[in-house]
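Lecture 7 notes: from sequence to structure.
We start with the chain below.
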Amino acid sequence: MIHSLLPYKEHYTQANAGAVALNVEDGFIQSRYAASSVIIGRMTSGPYLGGARYQGIKTRHAWLFGKNIGLAKGYLDYIRQHGTPDLLEVHGRCQVASYLARKHPDLKMALYLHNDPREMKGSDTPAKRHGLLQRMAAIFCVSDYLKSCFLDGVEANAAEISKIKIIPIAVERSATTPPKKDKLITIIGRMVPEKGMLEAAQAMGKVLPNYPDWKVKFIGAKRFKDTDPSGYEQKVADALAPIRHQSEMTGFISRAETKQLQHASAIVLAPSQWQEPAGRVVVEALATGAALITTRRGGIPEYAEGRAVILDRGDAEELAIALDQMLGDAAWRKSWQDKAWVDYPFAIADMASQLDDARAAAMADHQWSYADRGRAT
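Predicted structure tokens for the same chain:
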């Protein structure tokens, strides 16, 4: 039995699932452990991504300890009633992994990292990360970049480092041949500065008037649900005002609508301004055979190198130059669409196989002895 414990903020619903929830779901779709797994998170209303696999639990004393530790306390109640799993995967919350390690020394755990642990509670120092590395049966990272973040300043031996496994993001293609493309550009993501939405809007304002038959859609809101527009979203809207007849900010829309637009998009921009651990939107763009323009940030090049145009700065000026070339040169655009479609190694079956092998090794690891348990700081 495998349990996967989500961060409190993560919605596992079909309507509001974020990148972490989608990655977790993909890790079980074709897993050999699918029939003996439970995905555990906050109490929410379905329908859920994983159907019967999802179990909502109540938090305990969240008002005092915070929502994530409150969820961890709720999880301890859950396993008292239903039994301890062979492996618990703790997603993205290092303080939760440390807390559960202290409270339940016999619990075999894998920490599944989706973001930089140096910026998280429970792992913001090399000593804390080394304690987690000693205590965990495995650590899964979505990119080699994230592995380097975890090991930053950590004096670990070879056996400890071997516990860290790279499990790439995967997205299943829903088409067997390249989808028909419209003269459409999409930019998908949360409306926050680190995603580069304003820089993209500024670039569009410079370039799109020269290509009146092209349109752009900005898809997403500040959070993975329908909310009121933020001040940052207003800045993006202001930048798009001169091209209002060629542009649209859709706000939050359903996954089904987003997929339709992804398939129709000839060009996708993913102009991250921060050190993106991997970038699901990058893989989704490649899966649909879009010509992708992205940035050299974090783990993005591990997915996009040779398959997309990768910009070093990613500011409005550089984005405008790349976009102008992509729009003005049909052969150039088609070459990147072909590269995205032909060189696509991110199928869910491959990812699930790698993850299952890593899970099996963690569950069978006899070096994870009773003497090691409870060391996490």
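Points to note: The chain has two domains: 2-170+350-372, 182-342. Residues 348-364 form the longest helix (17 residues).
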